[in-house]
Amino acid sequence: MPEYKKKTYSQNQRNAKSNQKQNQDVQVEVGDKLLITIKRLGINGEGIGYYKRKITFIPNALPGEVVDVVVTAVNPKFIEAKIRKFKQKSPDRIEPLDNQEVGGTELGHLRYEKQLEFKQDVIRQALEKYRPRGYEDYDLRPTIGMDDPTGYRNKAQFPIRQQGDHLAVGMYKPNSHELVDLPEISTQHPATLKVVRTVRDILEELEVPIYDEKQNSGIVKTLIARVSESTGDVQLTLVTNSQKLPKARQIIERINAELPEVVSIDQNINKGKTSLVWGEETKHLWGADYITETINGKQFMLSPRAFLQLNPKQTERLYQEAIKALDLTHADKLVDAYSGVGTIGLSLADQAGEVRGMDTVADAVYDANENAEANEIENADYFVGEAEVLIPEWADQGWVADAMVVDPPRTGLGEALRDTILDTEPEKLVYISCNASTLARDLEDLTEVYDVDYIQSIDMFPQTARWEGIVKFTRR
């Protein structure tokens, strides 16, 4: 007879199976009232407690608090609940500055010093989940915060709708289509709020047709205002449901008269029902083609769709940390992947011998090269394309990068680019991340070739749970 090996389980596996069975045995229903002690914060800023060992997520709760909650959702593995009343409050709780019904400031009730500690813990939690090589010994540096963690968002992007007999522009309540007319938002630059509110009033007085989502009718969908921190100039974009913008001339005249800070007005066409804010076509209506932002002494021209970090003050700190981490010499050839309008690569160009960047958005690449010319930077060139395609092509032509900086979207590095980095092995590598989870996942692969020197968290989004950081690598 064949021999069979007896299946064995580690203690952790036995505990996991036991906990899973206990979770399934927990009887709880939506509407039930529970008393929960909060143990820690989750990566989205929510309080985490346990009901009979079943993990329970509770927004607006802080570690150490005892809260009376009502169950709002039940999942086989977890419970969701909301606070009815506090039995015991944390000494770190403060009165939030913002209207909590619209969301967007998940940590507004937490002292700022503790927010910074939380963001260091976010990356720690992500590393413990993915367990990349040597993660227990990573140098996780204290989060770099802001002196004034308010008014930092340089861009406002709000839907506009008819509500009864008036126009509302603002934010939707979470998980709903109920629009809250623009409340005070402590994180938003005051100039953007002023412009959006005033334009709302102008459109209402001129009786410009406003988009109706149910009927897919009307014209103006969204108002977008971006301010330059360095000049105070504002760029305004009206997103519309058609090519035609009724009463465009009167709208422009009123804006000129009432909002002298608005120096550029554009129309973006985004027809029909869609979850996307921007359409493909943008028409310039009036004023300057760009506004200009200054970062670390470099000037960057920003067209309406150009990407720029939402917090210019902390962006300067972010790029200063990148400069320090890369430690470039004038002999180094640098690749700026996910380059956007060139803000990172051009900030590093003074230290490098040559910079080459790439982006898949042609308009961004055009702006990057224009920004290089405007700053009289002659050792930087930007190309349309994917890094995983261009880098091997350049290597075949004899141009091999000594250094690389990557600043991917929240989805992290694609598999193809991870493989390209591991194949080309640039000596100096810096990863700027806006998502701790995808960073930790990418580190599983990158640490096959590189050691992690340190991870420096930087608070780009005070009052929120969003994390940003820089990783410095050393090639083994």
Automatic annotation (TrEMBL):
What are its E.C. numbers?
A: 2.1.1.190
- Gene3D superfamilies listed in its UniProt record: 2.40.50.1070, Nucleic acid-binding proteins, Vaccinia Virus protein VP39
Tell me the lineage of the source organism.
Bacteria, Bacillati, Bacillota, Bacilli, Lactobacillales
Q: Which UniProt keywords apply?
A: Methyltransferase, S-adenosyl-L-methionine, Transferase
Q: Where is this region: Disordered?
A: 1-25
Binding residues for S-adenosyl-L-methionine, per the UniProt record?
Q309, Y338, D359, D407
Which leading EC class covers this enzyme?
transferase
Family named by the database record: Belongs to the class I-like SAM-binding methyltransferase superfamily. RNA M5U methyltransferase family.
Gene Ontology biological-process annotations: rRNA base methylation
The keyword Transferase is annotated on this UniProt entry: yes
Q: Which residues form the TRAM domain?
A: 27-85
Task: Please list the residue ranges that the record marks as compositionally biased, kind Polar residues.
Answer: 9-25
**What is the protein name given in its UniProt record?**
23S rRNA (Uracil(1939)-C(5))-methyltransferase RlmD
Gene for this protein?
Answer: rlmD
Q: Which InterPro entries match?
A: MeTrfase_TrmA_AS, NA-bd_OB-fold, SAM-dependent_MTases_sf, TRAM_dom, U5_MeTrfase_fam
Q: Which residues form the signal peptide?
A: none
Statement: the UniProt record of this protein carries the keyword Transmembrane helix:
no
